[in-house]
């Protein structure tokens, strides 16, 4: 059926539309093309997901050769729901940027900016969909260059420094991934994930050291690219110095694609029977737990709001790695669900903060005192996102933490429940003061004029949509988690 080609068509639409943009001089037309192409991508992703729900997972051959000779896409429950997530969040971010990007970059770079965004999202979708490790590596490299571009596009000293740091760290991670692929190929002769698993089941007892080295290379390499603690050092500078729409994409989507690839490598290429013979899951569990705490500790001591949210991403990715490290279906399902909740929530937070910075001209926390009176709607949207990050019931942050606690009990790791509670309290320590100083206190509200810096509702609609998606994910968490669990096997 033609629907099976929709994942490939989505990527082609984004790539082809990207290379049309430099030929167009009108900024409004470029923005329209980017919006329409992403909307089309969302429609195609939704159609693909409905097909998967009705008929189940499928493989799609690209070109004339079948796997393992040729490249193929694998679309299961996780890939389908992630396709919707990536195109929806990207659409909302692009929609928001239509009104704001002119304030952050010069008009001559508008076409370049949207070109980079379309290429980046297309590459991330390629990483999600592909069933071929080398093909995934190619998409990783294209996405890395596009990510660097959306950071450095402001062409300021801080952006250049952050981009160089990100590029160096990311190239290191990519190199380790490539070496991991080489080691796996040396003992299996395969690059297709399905065929790699079949070969490994028959040879893994002959090459335990090679498998351990390959597992380590994949874990560290993809850990660097997905900000696993303590490999996260590039993230705060990159996220805080980039345009707000770029920060939202980097935090909400870029990190997630590489974690999904790590899940595919660990649980589909190697498989639970093999990785249970090695300590890799325990190491991921420990690093995830430490990241949950230390990311929040670092966030508490920041004085710029975007750096607070950036370090919060380190802590939130800790929850994801914790779920992966538990080594159970429920743990992995919660890791994927948390990526969904975090993507819609963190993109809303970065966009709302971007609106505050745009109107106040201040990135400092002290400069945002009383912002709840000057920008009440934007501040309420920020509050709702912060409540989810802290873990208030009904919202997806709470669903993730609650189910992670249940998954920890399932494998008799009770200590993790305490770590989750401590992390949640630390989340409150750096999010609640921002909200309290924004809405309350005589000194904070003195001389502030009600709605004096509010943005028009039409410019805030993308953030409303993201917050609505966040709340919906919280209410429907059980259904979403079960759908993800059914796609892990």
Automatic annotation (TrEMBL):
GO terms for cellular component: plasma membrane. It holds the Pfam family Proton_antipo_M. Residues 131-426 form the NADH:quinone oxidoreductase/Mrp antiporter transmembrane domain. It is a multi-pass membrane protein. InterPro entries: CPA3_Na-H_Antiporter_D (IPR050586), ND/Mrp_TM (IPR001750). The chain crosses the membrane at residues 6-24, 33-53, 73-98, 110-130, 136-154, 166-187, 207-227, 248-267, 279-301, 308-326, 378-399, 414-440, 460-484. Its main location: membrane. It is found in: Cell membrane; Membrane. Keywords: Cell membrane, Membrane, Transmembrane, Transmembrane helix. Belongs to the CPA3 antiporters (TC 2.A.63) subunit D family. This is Na(+)/H(+) antiporter subunit D.
């Amino acid at each position: 059926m033609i629907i099976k080609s929709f994942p490939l068509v989505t990527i082609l639409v984004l790539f082809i539309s990207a290379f049309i943009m430099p030929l167009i001089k009108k900024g409004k037309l470029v923005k329209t093309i980017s919006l329409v192409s992403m909307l089309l991508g969302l429609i195609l992703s939704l159609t693909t997901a409905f097909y998967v729900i009705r008929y189940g997972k499928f493989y799609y051959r690209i070109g004339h050769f079948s796997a393992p000779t040729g490249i193929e896409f694998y679309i299961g429950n996780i890939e389908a729901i992630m396709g919707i997530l990536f195109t929806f969040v990207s659409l909302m971010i692009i929609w928001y940027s239509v009104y704001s990007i002119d304030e952050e970059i010069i008009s001559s770079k508008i076409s370049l900016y949207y070109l980079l965004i379309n290429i980046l999202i297309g590459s991330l979708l390629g990483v999600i969909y592909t069933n071929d490790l080398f093909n995934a590596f190619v998409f990783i490299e294209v996405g890395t260059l596009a990510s660097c571009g959306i950071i450095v596009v402001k062409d300021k000293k801080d952006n250049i420094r952050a981009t160089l740091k990100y590029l160096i760290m990311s190239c290191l991670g990519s190199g380790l991934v490539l070496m991991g692929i080489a080691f796996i190929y040396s003992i299996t002769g395969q690059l297709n994930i399905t065929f790699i698993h079949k070969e490994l089941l028959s040879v893994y007892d002959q090459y335990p050291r090679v498998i351990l080295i390959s597992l380590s290379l994949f874990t560290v390499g993809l850990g660097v690219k997905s900000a696993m603690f303590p490999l996260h050092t590039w993230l705060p500078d990159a996220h805080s110095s980039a345009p707000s729409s770029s920060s939202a994409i980097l935090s909400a989507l870029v990190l997630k694609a590489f974690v999904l690839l790590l899940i595919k490598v660990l649980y589909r290429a190697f498989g639970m029977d093999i990785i249970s013979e090695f300590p890799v899951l325990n190491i991921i569990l420990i690093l995830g737990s430490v990241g949950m705490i230390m990311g929040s500790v670092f966030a508490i001591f920041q004085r710029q709001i975007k750096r607070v949210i950036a370090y919060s991403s380190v802590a939130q990715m800790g929850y994801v790695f914790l779920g992966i490290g538990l080594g159970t279906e429920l743990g992995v399902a919660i890791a994927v669900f948390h990526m969904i909740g975090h993507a819609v929530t963190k993109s809303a937070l970065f966009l709302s903060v971007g609106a505050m910075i745009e109107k106040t001209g201040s990135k400092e926390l002290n400069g945002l005192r009383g912002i709840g009176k000057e920008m009440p709607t934007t501040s309420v949207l920020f509050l709702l996102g912060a409540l989810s990050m802290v873990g208030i019931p009904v919202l997806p942050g709470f669903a993730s933490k609650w189910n992670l606690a249940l998954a920890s009990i399932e494998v008799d790791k009770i200590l993790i429940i305490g770590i989750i509670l401590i992390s949640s309290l630390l989340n409150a320590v750096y999010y609640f003061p921002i909200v309290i100083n924004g809405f309350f206190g005589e000194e904070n509200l003195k001389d502030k004029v009600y709605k004096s810096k509010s943005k028009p509702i039409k410019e805030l609609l993308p953030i409303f949509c993201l917050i609505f998606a966040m709340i919906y994910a919280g209410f429907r968490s059980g259904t979403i988690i079960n759908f993800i669990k059914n796609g892990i096997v």
